[in-house]
Amino acid sequence: MLTRLQVRNFRSLEDLELPLGPLTAIVGPNGVGKTTILRALNLALGDMWPSLRSFQIPQDFFQFDATRDIEIAIDFDPPYEHRDTLSHVHEITALRLTCKPYKRSGRWGEAGDHHVDLEPLDSNGDVPTVAVGQPTKGQKTQFTPLKVGTELRDHARILFIDHRRSLAQHLPGLRGSILGRLLQKARKEFDPQQGFAQAYAQALELLRTEEVKRIEQTVAETAKRMLGFLGRDIAESVEICFGFADPANPLISLRLQYRESGLTVPGEELGLGIQSAMVVGIFEAFRQLGEKFGTVVIEEPEMYLHPQAQRYFYRLLCEMAETDQCQVIYSTHSPVFADANRFEALRLVRKRAGQSTYMSFVHQSGTESLEAARKRLKLAGKFDAARNEVLFASRALLVEGLGDRLAALIVAEKLGLDPDAEGVAVVDCGGKSGIELVVQVCRALDIPFVVLHDEDVWPTGDIEDQRKRSNRERQNEAETCQNERIKEAVAEAGSVFVISPTLEDVLGIGADASDKPRRIAETLAQLDTDASSPQLRPLIDAVRTLFNMSGEAEKRQAGILESPGLP
After folding, report:
1. What is the pTM of this model?
2. Rounded mean pLDDT of the chain?
3. Is the Cβ–Cβ distance between 438 and 387 less than 8 Å?
4. Which of 61, 75, 177, 554 has its CA 20 to 30 A from that of 537?
């Protein structure tokens, strides 16, 4: 499993350190560096061996400054063990890919020319020196820095699936494809002598029409003549003809096909929506067969999928990560895949204008309080796609329920403010008890926020019945404790506005009234924000405070956000 990614001077990533877990969701707006993070992983550990041609110069350098050194370092666990010729074991815990200019001219190139190196690192961050060759009598053992070979790179290799979600990326013959891995057992079971050769020959005969034979003969005769010019006398011993892709290993030639109303179409020729559905099917087969893979990196897994399919695919990836079938790393714009319930998996990526990308995530020290809040408040099922939108907001107003959210949006409209235009989210937290957890998620991920909730504390002096008065006092005490917990959770990180006793009471809507959201909307339609009652000022002030948060205020609230590094 990959455990950490460090990137320096690559595109928008001047200096970024990203912890990686079994499930890692990279979330953030467009243009902040999510794709760059995935590309860094793919450059070092993807299907293609990295070379100078893998980089665009100077575009891949931070601020197009090609005098800098690009460095991509990836840690993994368990380590790779290299045994040298003296039987010394060297543990490799990371690979480092660099693209940098030569400092001075030499036999490898001129000063300023760029070169690419892929190096193995031990736990001290050094390239180990290892014994090589078998020393002869009277000679000393030779030592040299360890080089990265195919076996070492395969130890941490990833499968990268980009946003196009094409079936062509999953063909069985491609190195590292999941479909190829699934068919390994089938290849061992396959016996080409059990009628396959005969069926293969019959199929070829059906294909070889007179026109095909003429083309085949012309190609064969010309090719043999060309080989004869090269001094190779093979005219009688070689046959050149049409055939299937690999008759010795036909499973590699398998393709997924789509049949409907008697028409068969190759899967890779279909629309990307159907291809994406077939890719999800490959993952489901992988899950059901219990295979283990390593690391799968997916760019925007929600692409081309309807909401229900997104939820299915998300649960599938979570299960694969939780059962240790594979590590899953993905970037996303979808509130389905950006799940605040799994706060430990979230990596929130942002970027200031003209500056480098920075990142926020839940530190190890913060997971305990968040986990306690999640268990205590039993909110695991209460976050949904709408509430997860807080993860994509530049700042957020956290409210108790639908009626409060509607009220805030109406007030914003009356004040001439547009939440969508400014990337502001008004989040229904599913009840006052939910605000505490959402506050902690926002604090952990440095999302600026404002809280608005009802006080829910009522007078008891006018209640003559002792039993009812005691019940009301207990309810008031519980609400007061809840209010204090919210206040403590917010601390200095945000502002809290409290409507007393409740929004409905201030608007003259009874506690038992039906269709409260409609009643709230109708009442607030007549609201004059400049001449409103003092009891409604918390609602108006909360909205104004949210929209008046300048960029500098956001930075102050988030503590001048910097990449926090590993916990």
Report:
1. 0.82
2. 85
3. yes
4. 554
